[in-house]
Amino acid sequence: MLDKFLIFSFGGRVIFSHKFDCEIEGEPVNELISNILIEDRTGSVKEYVHENYKMKWQIENEFELVFVVVYQRMLQLFYLDKLLELLQENFLNFAREQINKLDNPNKFALSPSFFSLNKLKLPDFRPHFLQILEQVEEYDKRQKVATKMRTFDKTDKYKNTVTAVKDKDGVGKKNKKKKNKNQNDQDEESDSEESNSESNSPSLTKKKKISKSAKRIKKLQERQKSGGRSPKRNLRRRGRGRGGRGGRGSKSKKKIDEKPQKKIKKPMKWDNTLTKSERRELDQGEKLDQMQMKEISKQNSQKLIGDKKLNLDFSASEGEDDDDYWELSNDEEESIDEEEEEEEKEGFKVNLDSLKKKKKSNETKKKKKGKVANFFKGLKGNKELDEETLEPILEKFRDHLISRNVDSEIAQKISDSVLLGLKGKQIGTFQRVVKIVREKIEEVLIKILTPKRVVNILRDIGISKKKKEPYSIVFVGVNGTGKSTSLAKTCYWLLQNNFTVLIAACDTFRSGAVDQLRVHSNVLGVPLFEWGYGKPPANIAQKAIAHAKSNNIDVVLIDTAGRMQDNELQMRALANLIELNKPNFVAFVGEALVGNIGKDQLIKFNQGISDYSKTNKTQLINGIFLTKFDTIDDKVGAALSMTYSSGIPIVFLGVGQQYVDLKKMDVKMISKTLIKN
Amino acid sequence: MRTKETLEPILSFLPFSLWANVSILFAGVLVVCLLIYLIIKLFGRMKKSGEPSILIVGSMNTGKSCLFYQLNEGEFVETQRSMKEQEATFAIHEKFLKDKDPKAQKKKYHFIDWPGSPSLRLRLSDFYPITEKIVFVVDGTELDDDTFELFYKLLSAQKLKEKKIPFLVVLNKSDLIDSPDVKPMEKLFNRELSQLNKTYASTSFTKEQEDETENEITQLLDESEEFSLEKLQNTISFVKSSTKNGQIDEIIDFILN
């Protein structure tokens, strides 16, 4: 089911690769590296899709290794996370073993250069890899087979209804008849299933198995009942809201028990004659606090599970958020989780125990070295960065970035990536963790802000000039961001570089737009192509470009009307303009002041242009003009938010109202401003 | 007794008894020694001045890491896109030094393999001060704008200009059918770089005084003259190679001389 498995170092060396039956088309792993790993977007995504392939990966920072598994995009394989973890542990132990087998094991030490420079030629890892893969796939198969449906008469629900029926006399008989009918239908199906499930796992006792799978099936049944949605959503629909402690199971039990005694609704007491217990019942704040505590503990347990607990929970179904699943497991009695863990431990006992033993033996060997050497080694630093030390520092940096006007989501994603990038790294004792985190964050910011492809407009204009075609630049954006002003500044800059320019007034909506451009054209001495107000902009642009071509003008600057990103009609018109005229450069003009909404504007503009065009391959936004940069002092976070979310580079910064106030994007300056305390 | 007499006046400035003073002084000397040792260890990571540094740069997917491993191990190693720079000090693999004099076989070089991705290029300038030679790897079959931009950037770096660092442009992947020859490539480079030269005229933008000059790209030659690589201060030579097949003899010659 997998297509390829790779282990490679940060420097690029492929240490181990295993190709399964099919040939891989293209270079999906290279794309993964370029788009996710280099840009440190590891915090925001867990899997990457490129063309027909999906990839999952695991990064080992201590030895600078990446473990990647490539598989078909359509498949949903849940065992991959565990597979990667196991392979990682196993590979490192394999390497350690090989070192210890040598005559002089002290000559080599596990380090990044050990792998990347291949200091010791390791034997083939393939048999180990195949063995682990087989085990994990086997286990996954067993999991799937084990969860078969029970028959109806084995469920708790049936028992409850039968007992309820036995209490009531007359009412029960009708229900009993109905139950019998259902039972007959299911009996035929259940026999074969029962025998299958029993024969597959003889190690567990029957009782244990039934109760565990009983609960699982109860889960599934509840889900089926509510039409495929999670019980959490189900609760919401029924108006019970969140924070239902005890879960569906206990609630449904309550309902059935109370049926015989009809609950009389007590009238609400509005005066001060409440007893303490009544007051506590009415206190929603306490319940909310409890809910919050549960959420916090849930989040904490999620983190733990990500790091250490090897919880092989395969029962999550697709299409459900992680949140839904975790709500379920918290609502259920905790015994389920324990039971699941026990079974998993049994399945993997051999592997994990043997791995643990090996780790311990390695550690004891280290201690046997000389004390003096040990002392200096300790000074040199074997301090390993882990989440506890990094988290508080990252939180401060996050708050700092948010105070600099970076989107809070993006700040979180960046800190997640930095955490993943520094976890497990060895540092010297004299190096302060704060300094290392700061350097890493600066590195990440620089990587995000640096454009993936160098944007050199002047050079591109030169190329178009040779082809004897005009180079057209369209300025798009929402209202009031400074398109017309940016256009005028760009015109001035191009004139300084000795190009001939034509301005096309395609903002036919705003009153005074054409006149404003007329003033600019008079001052700069540049022809203006306009057709008054009210005419369709796409046609004006077309004619302007034709005019430029016939008169050998180098550049056409096209001004458009400001429009809201949500306005479908206007976005369609814009997409039409771009499709019709095929400009060489589409510049999105955004304000630095506006911050996070700017990110939304940019994404929706980009989407709108591609969605509302008729062809498949349309011109998207090529670059961002960030205007009003002089008004924000050091709150430069908008630049980061925009670049991070869209991947579009910032080309120019507008720093004032004069023609000369146009600067090229200085990545280092902005990243330093963002970090500066 | 004599020692006591000699030591007393020296250590009279310390308030305690004689032997306490001596032990304090001794401890102080120890601490200083320890500090010096640690400082040396921390800074010991700096490159020793003996070995020349050779920077291997270029666009993505040109064969830089491949070349790095060929020099080290003498065989083709499968590589993926580099995420991080690789530095190592080693002598060139003996396979390539069979006909050279034995001194060359022992000489170690500090090779720096820099990733080709543009996002990782900013820190490259940190290595300019220690670079002695630059090997610029190019994929002859897939030339893109990025190649010329990077080349121009390197040429215009102040620190490299001052030291007159020699450049070697390696047309890699010569094992492929459509790999071009040296002369047409030289002409192409001249053309492209002259185009870029025009775009980096000094009157482009208003400069602030605090601008960093390391990553700034300045114009190489005046626009009025015809652009030619020979007019630059750095010597630039072009060779063909195939890192896959191990045909890197001309690169070795460049490194050794």
From TrEMBL, chain A:
SMART domains: AAA (SM00382), SRP54 (SM00962), SRP54_N (SM00963). Residues 185-196, 318-345 have a biased composition (Acidic residues). Residues 163-172, 276-289 have a biased composition (Basic and acidic residues). It is found in: Endoplasmic reticulum membrane. InterPro entries: AAA+_ATPase, Longin-like_dom_sf, P-loop_NTPase, Sig_recog_particle_rcpt_asu_N, Signal_recog_particl_SRP54_hlx, SRP/SRP_N, SRP54_GTPase_dom, SRP54_N_sf. Keywords: Endoplasmic reticulum, GTP-binding, Membrane, Nucleotide-binding, Receptor. Residues 163-350 are annotated as: Disordered. Its main location: endoplasmic reticulum. GO terms for molecular function: GTP binding; GTPase activity; signal recognition particle binding. Pfam families: SRP-alpha_N, SRP54, SRP54_N. One of its GO terms (cellular component) is signal recognition particle receptor complex. Belongs to the GTP-binding SRP family. This is Signal recognition particle receptor subunit alpha.
TrEMBL record, chain B:
The keyword Glycoprotein does not apply. The chain crosses the membrane at residues 18-40. It comes from the Eukaryota. Gene3D superfamilies: P-loop containing nucleotide triphosphate hydrolases (3.40.50.300). It is a single-pass membrane protein. Pfam families: SRPRB. This is Signal recognition particle receptor subunit beta.
